[in-house]
Design goal:
- It is built from eleven helices and eight strands.
- The protein is mainly α.
- The protein has a three-stranded antiparallel sheet. A three-stranded antiparallel sheet has the order 6-8-7.
- Helix 8 crosses helix 10.
- The longest helix is centred in the C-terminal third of the chain and has 36 residues.
- The chain is elongated and about 85 Å long.
- It comes from Culex pipiens (House mosquito).
- It holds the Pfam family WHD_CHMP7_1st.
């Protein structure tokens, strides 16, 4: 990673690679204002709104950069620390993003997906928007401020990642076929998703009926046994059928047998080589 060179006693200008930060980050005077607490908006609405916009973009960009839409104030203070100074304005920014629905408490975001279409529609279109109002924001308030350890989900980032994942799934011809969680992670390993970020994206897509997920019986949390079926564009994700499940199991059995045969052949070759060396 590229870093700005500093003296032995100087505080670093960058925590992440330098290319992540905007040019403004190197301006001491401007950053002094941006890192400070917000003043009352009525004093200078234009500067207030500009500062708010700057930090909202920084938070969204950071979530995209790390490959996960979940973030906390504690994490942001660490990442946006500049020359030993943390941003003192994040409480105000996060509270505003919560009010605007740009951030959602992780627990609220990951509520269980409704099984039926009717239940899903009511939950997504009626209950959740109401639940994400300021009443929910107040639940995250601790001692007059936002709980700095609480995780929030940047909805715009998760939606963008969902679109990117759907495009990748379509490109790899994995629509309407069964895919294990392990297989999906292997598929996206070079696409910038973290495991945590992928979890949020899949939950969002399940709420949108873009993917159907199923844990096979008696397998606990083993990712190898979580099956996914992505819907075609414009269609709703459909439950996995018994036939699809049987075909998947047969394919997995075939792959396991081929691996066993390959290992046996390697063992035989190794044994023959050892015999020849000792003749």
């Amino acid at each position: 990673m590229s870093r700005k060179s500093v003296g032995p006693n100087a505080q670093p200008l960058f925590v992440l690679e330098e290319s992540f930060y905007p040019d403004t980050w190197q301006n001491d005077s401007r950053m002094g204002v941006l890192l400070s607490e917000f003043r009352v908006r009525s004093i200078n609405p234009e500067n207030y709104d500009s500062k708010m916009k700057f930090w909202k973009e920084m938070i969204r960009n950071y979530c995209e950069h790390k490959g996960c839409g979940a973030v906390s104030i504690v994490e942001l203070k660490r990442v946006f620390k500049r020359k030993g100074t943390i941003p003192y304005c994040l409480q105000t920014v996060i509270a505003d993003m919560l009010r605007e629905g740009q951030l959602v408490g992780r627990g609220d975001f990951q509520r269980p997906v409704q099984d039926s279409w009717g239940g899903w529609a009511v939950d997504l279109l009626v209950k959740r928007p109401l639940g994400w109002g300021f009443g929910k924001v107040k639940e995250k308030i601790v001692g007059g401020g936002v709980d700095e350890g609480a995780e929030f989900v940047c909805t715009e980032v998760v939606k963008g990642q969902s679109v990117a994942l759907e495009k990748l799934i379509q490109k790899e011809n994995k629509l309407n076929v069964l895919l294990s969680m392990e297989g999906l992670k292997d598929l996206v390993k070079d696409s910038g998703f973290t495991d945590d970020g992928l979890e949020l994206v899949l939950h969002h897509m399940a709420c949108q009926q873009r993917v159907y997920t199923e844990k096979l019986p008696d397998e606990g949390l083993d990712n190898k046994r979580v099956l996914l079926k992505f819907a075609a564009p414009g269609a709703k994700a459909q439950p996995i059928t018994d036939i699809e499940r049987s075909i998947y199991n047969l394919e997995q059995t075939e792959q396991n047998l081929l691996k066993m045969i390959d290992k046996l052949e390697q063992d035989v070759s190794g044994a023959l080589l050892l015999v020849k060396q000792n003749i």
